[in-house]
Amino acid sequence: MHDVPKDLMDHIKELEKIFTIETPMLHQIVDVFVEELKKGLATEGSTIPMNPTWVIGYPTGDETGTFLALDMGGTNLRVCEVELPEEKGQYDIYQSKYRLPEEIKCGTGEQLFDYIAECVKQFLIANHEGQDISELKELYLGFTFSYPCTQNAIDHGILQRWTKGFDIEGVEGHDVVPMFEAALERKGVPIKITALVNDTTGTLIASAYTDGTTKIGCIFGTGCNAAYMEEMGCIPKLAHMKLDPTLPIAINCEWGAFDNEHRILPRTTYDIHIDKHSPRPGQQTFEKMVAGLYLGEIFRLVLVDLYANPDVSLFKNEDISALQEEYSLDASFLAEIESDPWENLMETHALFEKKLKIDTTEPERKLIRRLAELIGTRAARLSACGVGAICKMKDIKSCHVGADGSVFNKYPNFQQRGAHALREIFGWDKSVRKDPIQIVPSEDGSGVGAALIAALTMKRIRKGIHAGVNIKRKNSLIPPLP
Ligand SMILES: Nc1ncnc2c1ncn2[C@@H]1O[C@H](COP(=O)(O)OP(=O)(O)O)[C@@H](O)[C@H]1O
């Protein structure tokens, strides 16, 4: 970068210092992460909640039939119909995508559930032409609701708190399943919610269905989270239930809350700013450093800060009012900058001109590119710490980690950077020809995974096997404990 003026070069160095996570820090973060995962298994209400999902074991292959899945992500809403045939590992999927309007994310619970019930209705009308939808009583739905819930049974979930920028009144502290079922009833849609599923658990189950070496499911999208299969005997907080200690149960970690106490993560002033100005300050510390929702905002805050710095000549004589708008850039903006193949970063020039009406110089673009790399690399390396921590805690020596989400699938080099960090965490050198633990693109967890979990649940119900603590919920499909 010999053509970059000294003031910009100095600031690139400063940014490198604050955003780089060196190998020793990776190790320290993993160690604290393991402690916190264990605390979550031991005690209710820990920082990392380690929520039992009541998904008991992996699919065996004899789950068959047609199931619905509804995926309420942070950005989109998707309705799927999944056919599971006789052959294990196979499926057919039909789906429609709907945008979640911004105003819904800050409205009321009734508005939210009415909106998604209407999407389900429209999907059924389109996919069951000629059929009366009020007759579709035999369809069962896996509801992928990817927000931290306390689950006492698989078709039950009390929302602990909204994440990913949602702030909908009247839902936190309530069971979301009856709220959604009431909305379906209002719309005249008679389907039953068989399972409330987190996208991470769906990813774990869907990936394990087609790849038996899968041990962890991860999401790197609007938010960031993971799920894995735990033995009941390793969950002290459920010991009072006196269930078979060998019973496998999927745990939704909700690891986005890691380090809410600020013990270890090297937060920059920009991370602190994001937290302070978020709807939930003090929560989701890890997520706010790695998830898609925040990467663009971290990037934007750094540029605004440099512009205001009299010692730096960045965007001088430019109108930066578009850049000053909060959350105006998302992770795809950084992904585009990192994908620019030209030495003079001419695509980045066009991007800034089009999106922000800023005419950039080549040295400015060098700083911009380096900043995007630093933020994207930090996110991938921190994400690898979470994967490393689960593997260390469970003494997993080799496995596939099924991963999904636009950041994982579309952000350039995210996968390679994560793999590199895992090599540093586990100390694999060049003599290890194939990484024993690999994060790989998953099957469709929120669709196929949720449908598989609905199928698994129906199989257990038909066999009369109870899963979950004794709850009294009107219309619950789960039989109470004998
Ligand atoms: N091309 C892209 N590269 C990197 N990140 C992207 C890209 N497109 C979208 N994103 C980010 O991914 C997030 C959405 O994640 P996604 O997995 O698509 O949905 P959801 O989390 O709602 O299920 C957004 O925060 C957005 O910033």
Globally, the shape reads globular
Q: What ligand species are in this complex?
A: adenosine-5'-diphosphate
| Spatial sequence of strands, sheet with the most strands | 1-11-10-9-12-13
- Distance linking N and C termini: 71 Å
Supply the helix-strand structural class: alpha/beta
- Number of helices, where a helix is a run of at least 4 consecutive DSSP H or I residues: 14
Contiguous runs where pLDDT drops below 50 for at least 5 residues: 469-473
Strand content: 15-25%
Major sheet attributes: 6 strands, mixed
Report Rg: 23 Å
Order of helices and strands: HHEEEEHEEEHEHEEEHHHHHHEHHEH
Instruction: Provide the helix percentage.
Output: 40-55%
Average pLDDT confidence is 92
Number of strands: 13
Please provide a written account of the structure.
Pathway: Carbohydrate degradation; glycolysis; D-glyceraldehyde 3-phosphate and glycerone phosphate from D-glucose: step 1/4; Carbohydrate metabolism; hexose metabolism. Belongs to the hexokinase family. This is Phosphotransferase. This protein is of the alpha/beta class and 482 residues long. The protein has 14 helices and 13 strands. The strands form three sheets. Strands 1-11-10-9-12-13 form a six-stranded mixed sheet, with helices on both faces. The chain has a five-stranded mixed sheet with strand order 4-3-2-5-8. Strands 6-7 form a two-stranded antiparallel sheet. β6 and β7 form a beta hairpin. α1 runs parallel beside α11 and α5 packs across α14. The relative contact order is 0.18. About 1% of the residues have low confidence. Adenosine-5'-diphosphate binds next to α8, α9 and α12.
